Amino acid sequence: MLDYARKAANVSLMPKGPKGEKRPADVIGAAVMVGKIATGEIVEVEEKPSAAAELGRRGGKARAESMTGERRTEVARKAAKKRWEKRK
User: Fold this and answer.
1) Pseudo-torsion of CA 12, 14, 17, 21, nearest 10°?
2) What is the biggest distance separating any 2 CA atoms in the chain, rounded to whole angstroms?
């Protein structure tokens, strides 16, 4: 009965980390995992930013450099105005 309810609710007993990796559900399991990471038994792989994110970063910088100071001010004022409109 419990398995059926868990599947119906789409709930997993194993919590997931911020990047979707599986993590221990209990405190002792988490402590063991931290110890293994500290001793090098488990290697955490850091992912590089996606190509789209990298291009977006470069594109924003290039756009800012190509704009005149007056145009940047205009864009900033328009953005601020939109933000304040949302609050009302």
Assistant:
1) -100
2) 66
Q: pLDDT (tens digit, 9 = 90+) per residue, 38-51?
A: 898 887 777 777 78
30, 21 Cβ separation under 8 angstroms = no
Q: How many Cβ atoms from other residues are within 10 Å of residue 75's Cβ?
A: 13
3-class DSSP assignment, residue 22: strand
Contacts of 57 (CB under 8 A, 6+ apart): 49
The reported pTM is 0.36
**6-27 pLDDT, tens per residue?**
555 555 555 666 666 677 778 8
Assigned token pair, 39 = 């001793």
Going by C-alpha positions, the residue among 33, 14, 30 that lies closest to residue 22 is: 14
